[in-house]
Amino acid sequence: MDIDVHTIRAGAAGAELAGFLLPTQQALIHECGWLKMLAPRAAGGAELPLPEAVRLEEAIAEADGSMGWVVTLCAGAGWFAGFLAPDAARAIIATPDVCLAGSGAPTGFADREGDGFRITGRWDIASGAPMATHFTLNAVLREGGVPLAGADGQPCVRAFVVPAAQVVVVPTWRSFGMRGTASHSYRIDAAWVPASHGFAIDPACTTAPGALYRFPFMLLAWVTLAANLSGMARHFLTLAGEIVAARRQPPASAQDALARAGMALEGSRERMYALLDQAWAQAASLPAAAGAGCAVDAALDARLREACQALVAAARRAVADIYPYCGLRAAQEDSDINRVWRDFHTASQHALFAP
Known about the structure:
This is Acyl-CoA dehydrogenase. Residues 225-354 form the Acyl-CoA dehydrogenase C-terminal domain. GO terms for molecular function: flavin adenine dinucleotide binding; oxidoreductase activity, acting on the CH-CH group of donors. InterPro entries: Acyl-CoA_DH_C, Acyl-CoA_Oxase/DH_mid-dom_sf, AcylCoA_DH/ox_N_sf, AcylCoA_DH/oxidase_NM_dom_sf. The protein has helices spanning 5-10, 12-18, 23-32, 50-63, 65-79, 86-93, 217-246, 254-284, 298-322, 336-347; strands at 100-102, 108-113, 116-126, 134-143, 146-147, 157-163, 168-170, 184-194, 198-199. By secondary structure, the protein is of the alpha+beta class. It has 3 domains: 5-93, Acyl-CoA dehydrogenase/oxidase, N-terminal domain (Butyryl-Coa Dehydrogenase, subunit A, domain 1, Orthogonal Bundle); 100-202, Butyryl-CoA Dehydrogenase, subunit A, domain 2 (Beta Barrel), CATH 2.40.110.10; 211-353, Butyryl-CoA Dehydrogenase, subunit A, domain 3 (Up-down Bundle), CATH 1.20.140.10. Strands 1, 2, 3, 4, 5, 6, 7, 8 and 9 form a 9-stranded mixed beta sheet that branches. It is globular and about 75 Å long.
């Protein structure tokens, strides 16, 4: 992927110290249109084919974990425009320097009021929060202050997008890695939004006709986040190789260990991308139509998820196996390899990757 690795990496240490992506990094993100890469073309987005977008996200994460994660999560929230009312989607994506951050847990409420909803609650871990123009969220629907339940007895949950002007960012992100993501919490205090700002993340409820919006949401999450960990692990192995090469007397087994780790990671990576390309070909082969339903069959979905899990496992093994060869340099907090190591171990704690 042709990306400006120099600009990304030049700001990585500063972003970690600042606790958010630097203006130069944010400017590059907007200049490249990365946060609109998954938004529908009809709404002003790029609507990139998913395999192209995932490879791009991996390349950005390999340059810097925090930037890759913010781009991935915020571009992923931009994908929701394919489920919004078309007029609302166009208006949101047309926002200057648009950035949608958000959180998936339904930790708030949406009360029907007139032709819209009044939203109250608090949500955690919204990567890119300081640069967000809008926040996405899930909320439990209520009427008269009483939560609504579906036919299965479970609370009715709906997704919403809320302008940042109606949101209060709560600075809670204090992780030892991925500091530049500024993955803070946010609070909404009885903010009203029109019904057009609500949506359902369901292939049967798409408002854009492209195959991208009929790709299963959880599978999209798997491939994009696994690619981020792959990118960070590849960066770690590159830095480790430089450290080993510079040592006067590296351990005799170091080069073989690096080669084995790299081969295992690349093998898992190639399998994941082969299955992703196959899943995308299946999705793209179906007639384009809004609300047409899921475009990847269950068997291929399961195989691709397993490949993502295997890629994450290979990335974890590679980083764990090679770290001991890197000496004290890898333990120095201000070293590049230490930052990448901390970023990797923070990102890999995402709930999706739990054992």
